[in-house]
Sequence to fold (180 residues):
Amino acid sequence: MKTLRAPNGAFAGDRGDPDLALRAVLAEAYAGGTHYAKAIAALCAARLLLPIVASGDEHGDGPDPNRRAEMAAVLVKSDAGATAVPVFTGMDALRAWKPEARPVPCTLDDVAATVLETASQAILIDLPGPHPVVIELGIVEELAQGRRLVELPDGGFGWMYWDRGPGADAGHGHGETHHH
Fold:
């Protein structure tokens, strides 16, 4: 299971309130055209809440002084057996889905790394609403490498990442946006 890092200092004081501008973009994600790409780009710059729950105490006949509960990311399984990592834009959506889960502030690339580490297939944004969005594995793999989808001045989209020099990034030279 993914080892969760210490909370990011950038989120100090964050109370879990939803970003209403982000939710407005998510509401249009499936409206066609570039709306889905705009939603992914907005999520790349957002604080998200990854739900975690205690694991390790679900079996046994009582307290075991030698066993400690560990915190683990929550996975959702479809009827077909595929798993996904749910993440939320605000505490309201997280509580509506699983009130006992503890929120860990994170970024979309953190969530994408969790998807790969748990062999899941997707990210589910705001599963109970107000505007659920699914991010499939192809995009998740880009995000897990620390790349961010950004809107370009011409209205197109590209992957932005830190260029660490020759050979540091396998995607170097494939028309992707670089940030130096």
